[in-house]
């Protein structure tokens, strides 16, 4: 348990450093989006192959849907990164999604309490609330830092982004549970696979971006 926590912390710092590099350099962003996309597609395909044994056409259909989704989302990220104000907003939402995950982990470990759902036994109601609180705080602080302005609807945007991230996380957890695997991979020490790390992000960032564009 102790070693797993240390690995999780070290990996988290590495991911934060990588996130900074991706923000500073569009070419680095494009390269790692490609790597992340490839690994997430492979991991998703592994899950589907377990769920749809001997159903090749169904497996191909779901894999194709996921591939198209990842391609469209990551391509959009790359295009948006060429516009400085949109790039800043994109990374603000990305950090909000990451903070949602961190808040859930911290509150879940500290307060424990009733389980949120049987889909993912480790997730608790306190963790879910922590996710929303952290998202609200980080989104509000980042928006205020860049705009020197604060509106109450930013709090609701933070809650919405967190809920979307949590639903994305639960969706992948549901698939993992059905396919009887614990993690989608082992590439990230303490975290599992790439898809374990970005399951909420791939849903939270695009929908969060739309929410922020609409309210602004």
Descriptive report:
- The chain has 216 residues and is an all-alpha fold.
- Helices cover 80% and strands 0% of the residues.
- Helix 1 packs across helix 2 (26-51) and helix 6 packs antiparallel against helix 8.
- The protein is globular and about 55 Å long.
- The model has no long low-confidence stretch (mean pLDDT 87).
Q: What descriptive keywords fit this protein?
A:
216 residues; 8 helices; mainly alpha
Brief write-up:
The protein is mainly α and 216 residues long.
Number of strands: 0
Mean pLDDT: 87
The dominant shape is globular
Radius of gyration: 17 Å
Show unreliable segments. none
Strand content: under 5%
Class from helix and strand fractions: mainly alpha
Order of helices and strands: HHHHHHHH
Reported for the largest beta sheet, the result is: none
Query: How many angstroms separate the termini?
Result: 44 Å
SSE topology:
Blueprint lengths: L1 H23 L1 H26 L4 H25 L3 H28 L13 H23 L5 H27 L14 H5 L2 H15 L1
């Amino acid at each position: 348990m102790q070693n797993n926590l240390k690995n999780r912390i070290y990996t988290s710092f590495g991911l934060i450093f990588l996130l900074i590099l991706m923000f500073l350099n569009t070419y680095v962003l494009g390269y790692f989006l490609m790597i992340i996309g490839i690994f997430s597609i492979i991991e998703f395909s592994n899950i589907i192959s377990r769920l749809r044994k001997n159903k090749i056409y169904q497996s191909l259909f779901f894999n194709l849907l996921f591939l198209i989704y990842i391609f469209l989302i990551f391509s959009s990220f790359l295009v948006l990164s060429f516009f400085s104000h949109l790039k800043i907003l994109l990374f603000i939402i990305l950090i909000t999604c990451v903070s949602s995950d961190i808040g859930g982990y911290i509150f879940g470990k500290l307060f424990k309490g009733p389980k949120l759902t049987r889909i993912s036994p480790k997730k608790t109601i306190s963790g879910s609330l922590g996710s929303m609180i952290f998202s609200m705080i980080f989104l509000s602080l980042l928006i205020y830092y860049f705009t020197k302005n604060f509106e109450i609807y930013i709090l609701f945007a933070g809650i919405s982004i967190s809920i979307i991230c949590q639903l994305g996380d639960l969706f992948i957890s549901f698939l993992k549970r059905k396919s009887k695997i614990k993690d989608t991979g082992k590439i990230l020490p303490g975290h599992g696979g790439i898809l374990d790390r970005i399951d909420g992000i791939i849903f939270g960032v695009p929908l969060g971006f739309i929410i922020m564009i609409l309210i602004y």
